[in-house]
């Protein structure tokens, strides 16, 4: 049994085994066949999709449309798991591989990627393709690291309140514009056994930061947040401590989610259902909610309820009424190892152009538009007016706020998410929570990893 | 005494001249071929297990963010761990998890297997029924339990408690769900081991008047001791690696009440971009496992458990 088969000498066997081992090793190191530029003559795009419909829409309206316009260097889609897309990409980049287009869920990891040399500077492409004229200034700035443009935002987001107009009129309420009006409705709703604000993080723990972002910008105020992000004041200052204490009370009083423990087990579908059934009055979420809320209302939801949106009111005297938080929900960069960077830049450009196509993406696939100048005429006529009016409202915002996932550095952001649960469960006081934010933020500010702020 | 020996004629060789070197060559060749056949597997293991493990140890001494390269910072990550309340809390939760896993599923598994070993009809059916939860994808099991435990229309509403939302109940609840998925596996392994016990021992014990419990304690348990000890060791190791049910059901919440070392590691690596610190946590987890395995091996030798 120990015989080497005739015709396969020991030397050859050794070569074969060694070759196999080497091939295995190299294959493992290469991380698959998606090496940038390894497939010369095309660019590789990785993407994760929340649904098959979204993937199909992307293939037809983005991928095929791009390839039709750019047949010389077409794009090839590699579908990745939606939930851990960035982890896969991070691993591939570390192995010197990955797609030609480096996508991120926001500006958070850009500094690390840029420092590691993963990203190609885009300044020349910006000039050549006219991005500076087309893309909104504040959004463009989020992709600038150490004076170099390394990423372009793919979409922008904000926070708003969803409500059921029938519930409001049934109880004689009108949509609140001030803290007093908002709190009066919450108090009354709670007394009636309703849930003032349907909320929960069972599906997504980071939903904590949506609420913290709202509290920071609508209680402490955007000016205070901006000053703190620039290091002019501290996150442990009374303006933030008071804001977090006020927010903590909202939770402890059961205004958010019905009760603190329920907040941890409420799912997103549950929250929309509570709104549709008239069990909850408000739901505070981001513009991504426009793509989620529909199936729970009207014919699709098996009821005759309707939804509407309103701006989050000022929750403290002195804070403007029309503050819209700004957020970048995704960025695109070019892999420094791409062998087709020009084609990759064309891909990015394609996704930032043709406002009518972007308007259609919003109408047909709930894809939020990129931060480019868009007019009412760019949105298709059949687009739900509630959707277009929401985007129009915050596109023309006079006061902007700062979301934690776009403008806060990573460790501070994680602390905000984790510490928030300790605040509302009584493990931390508002003072201690804010001190924790300040302690996390200080070193990151000193290290220069705070994302740039819009002018 | 040496002279006669010296003068004795040399014993005739057992085989013809030259055979011994040849046998050594064959043996050498056998080993070489065996190793060559194993080489691809060894290479892949070195590539995907050993090398990343060595790298993890290295990175645990750096401030690596998970991207690019890191700076050597010596034992800073380890000293930081000593003062990290989140680490201490996660470790404490892992110890509770281990204790629960060693008591509840082990006890259920042992008694389940013992009772099943007494069943003659439909044993396969029962075995299958117990084993099914172990084969169901964790995501599916978690979704089922989330619905079952719901405080709105599940068991939570019946008992008036929020199993996964209450800080005091969440860890125990997730461990219970894990037990549900896990104990059937133990039943099958214990049952296989129990079936190898000599039936004559039970017959003799029965003649001596020993009841089922006495037989279980005095015959079954000593007879399956190697399996039992092995599963205890495995359970401890698995307990320190607990991740999936925690991550899906509670994401470490509420307020860190179910955070375990692996969720803490994940958060540090991918949310905080502190892969160096996460590596240090991973190394500590591996050390705990190593201690358990070494203790097991020492006890095995000293107590001659498998002799």
TrEMBL record, chain A:
Gene3D superfamilies with a match to the protein in the record: Periplasmic binding protein-like II
One Pfam family per UniProt: SBP_bac_1
Annotated PROSITE patterns: TAT
Name of this chain's protein: ABC transporter substrate-binding protein
UniProtKB/TrEMBL annotation, chain B:
Disordered: region residues: 1-25
Low complexity bias locations: 1-18
Pfam families per record: BPD_transp_1
UniProt-listed GO biological process terms: transmembrane transport
One GO location term (cellular component): plasma membrane
Gene3D superfamilies in the record: MetI-like (1.10.3720.10)
Key words, A-Z: Cell membrane, Membrane, Transmembrane, Transmembrane helix, Transport
Main location: membrane
Protein topology in the membrane: Multi-pass membrane protein
Protein name in the entry: Sugar-binding protein
Protein species of origin: Phytohabitans flavus
